[in-house]
Amino acid sequence: MEKEISSKYIALSNLKKKPFRTAAMLAVIALSSALLLGSFIISASLRGGIFGIQSRLGADLMIIPEGAQQELEGILLYGSPNYFYMDKNIEELVRAVDGVASASGQTYLASVSESCCDFPVQIIGFDPETDFIVKSWAKSRLSKSPADGEILFAGSNIDVQKKTVRFYGQTHKVTAKLAKSGSGMDSAIYTDTATLKNIFLDARSKGFGFISGDDIDKKVSAIFVKLADGVRPDSAALRIQRALSQQPDAPEIQIIQNEKMILDLMNKFSAILIFMNGLSALVLVITFATLAVVFSLMLNERLKEFAVLRVLGASHQTLVKIILDEAGLVGCAGAVMGIFLSLLIILPFNVLISEKLALPFAMSSLPQIIIFSALVFLITLSASILSSVFSAVRISKFEPYGDVK
To answer: Which end of the chain is more exposed for a tag (fewer CB within 10 A), N or C?
Structure first.
């Protein structure tokens, strides 16, 4: 029994017969789909990192010393070690303001890269009694009940294989590891205020000074405020500002609204996201144009082949199917190759990519990656098929006794 020769069989045979041309088309399509998928994943990961900061903070307002916003953003975004202080009594004043549900202060220190410390890192002290942020991040217990009473949480990027860290000549046991947020806070160490004071005194004994004197427990770097239900952040900020301005020595503070800060960060990174998406779109357009030219040239080369097929009884519809099948086959194979290539680079090296970008980066989840991959496959396949439509229209008018109209 003879095997029926279908349009797909003819299309596949033609692609095999021209291996170099087929390989070039596959390479162009694969590059396009790889860049497109990479753009989708990285853009979503950057957005995830920024919103990870918002969810990780868990506060409506942040109060810091006047002019310290850039340093705070450096800590939150990049984990850059820094420190700045204001009087801790501000925390009690804020807590008494109408509309404030809870307030918790954090105090910042920094380790150094000298022999007294394992590594330079941001050290953040928090009060376990008032904290509503840090304790909820604990991911896995590394020591069940520290005998010395110290509480020390390590960010997800901190290497705690030894379950200890050394700061200013003293070793501290890590209590727990924190869940990943994709922000600079993953590169910080969090301690209770008593442990922080011990680290401060150890640093002072080694000649490192953060403030004059030894009253670090009377200082705070940032106060995180959670508002009662229905309270507007801007109204609460005005009430807090008014309450503090009435004090004898009115502190110079700055109140940051969480939502506005996240919006500002999104605006700062929008240029990067636009560039990445624009580059992907440009590559896709170039791929479409290149394939359209290739299919047009292929059609001119194969007029005799199509004439023979018409003489043998092939319909115009069959000729059109051959063109579209070739585009579909090469588009499908190229899209799969590009998706595989992109995932092969991004998945194993996402931490390195995050470090090189030096931006908040929360790797996209598996469902997101699957959706992005399916979307890229459909876009790339559609672009490949559409690029052959002009040639398909021309061949639909082809007659063996004349030229293509």
So the answer is: N
